[in-house]
Design a protein that fits this description.
There is one protein chain. This protein is α/β, with parallel strands linked by helices. It is about 40% helix and about 20% strand. The chain contains 11 helices and 12 strands. The strands form 3 sheets. The chain has a 7-stranded mixed beta sheet. A 3-stranded antiparallel beta sheet has the order 3-5-4. The longest helix has 21 residues. It is globular and about 60 Å long.
Length: about 290
């Protein structure tokens, strides 16, 4: 199957899955390889015949959907974002949770792949913030639709390349080496729970103080589905809670429940609302710088 054949097929198929071609254009190679293997396994000559197969076998559409998942994950991916979480956002959220009488900072990592993102949060909290907030624990729900990736996440075993953006001192404290891989120490796994769940099916509990939904919904989903997701995420967050999206993503129309944590940021805060008589208005309390 040529790249052109795959491209034409994806441009036809993705909208039918409520996905968008521009999000896949630069990473289509991963999807095309899976698609080629599936076509070969079915004994079908090519993508045009696979289109006919989809028409005759509606149960093949979920299989195609699973082939269109893009998995790129590593610790501290987008290093500057995690530094902002460490220095500004998580302390502010912890202060807010504590002021409301909370005992736990509730986090959701949506589309967690092999677990690098939620474990990055756990490392930040336990190495830099736990002493500052000794009366506050952290609970992280990490979800992905791919059970095989979640099994890898639960194992806590990673190749060195997955840690290349993690500070060296943290790498030494959080991991031990075993048979050529780096194994996350048990203390950093505590409080992290992995669930097999499709983001499109709704929230993974809540309310949460912070949701990380990066390089997933607002890259690959179509516009209508993006609006559904941003509304769902707003409902899953506490007032003043943080939403983190990919550094190259933007919120769709319908994201009026959020404002940037600071100008140009990919981190947003859910706007507080207060009742004034019979009216509901946005709280004008300034963002924490």
């Amino acid at each position: 199957m040529t790249d052109r054949d795959c491209t034409l097929f994806l441009q036809w198929a993705l909208p039918r899955l409520r996905l968008r071609w521009p999000g896949f254009r630069k990473v289509r190679g991963q999807v095309c390889k899976r698609l080629a293997r599936r076509i070969e396994d079915l004994g079908i000559p090519g993508p045009r015949d696979y289109r006919d197969h989809l028409g005759r076998h509606p149960d093949e559409w979920p299989v195609l959907d699973s082939l269109c998942r893009v998995t790129i994950s590593r610790f501290f991916r987008d290093h500057a974002v995690f530094r902002t979480l460490e220095r500004t956002v998580l302390p502010a959220l912890a202060d807010n949770a504590r002021s409301q009488g909370g005992r736990t900072l509730a986090c959701w990592s949506a589309g967690c792949a092999s677990g690098e993102e939620p474990y990055s949060l756990a490392i930040i909290w336990k190495l830099t913030l736990r002493e500052r907030f000794p009366d506050l624990g952290i609970s992280i729900v990490a979800t992905d639709v791919d059970e095989s990736l979640l099994e890898r996440a639960r194992s806590g075993c990673y190749r060195p390349g997955s840690l290349r953006e993690l500070p060296q001192s943290w790498r030494r404290q959080a991991f031990e080496q075993s048979q050529g891989v780096l194994v996350l120490r048990e203390m950093f796994r505590e409080g992290v729970r992995f669930l097999c769940r499709d983001l499109r099916s709704g929230p993974a509990g809540g309310p949460f103080d912070i949701v990380l939904c990066r390089n997933l919904a607002f890259t690959y989903f179509d516009e209508d589905l993006q609006r559904d997701v941003v509304t769902m995420l707003a409902g899953a967050l506490v007032p003043g809670g943080a939403l983190v999206i990919g550094s190259h993503e933007k919120l769709p129309r319908g994201g009026e429940s959020f404002e940037p944590w600071r100008k140009g940021s990919c981190i947003y805060r859910k706007i507080r609302q207060v009742c004034v008589g019979d009216q509901v208005r946005n709280d004008v309390e300034p963002f924490i710088p």
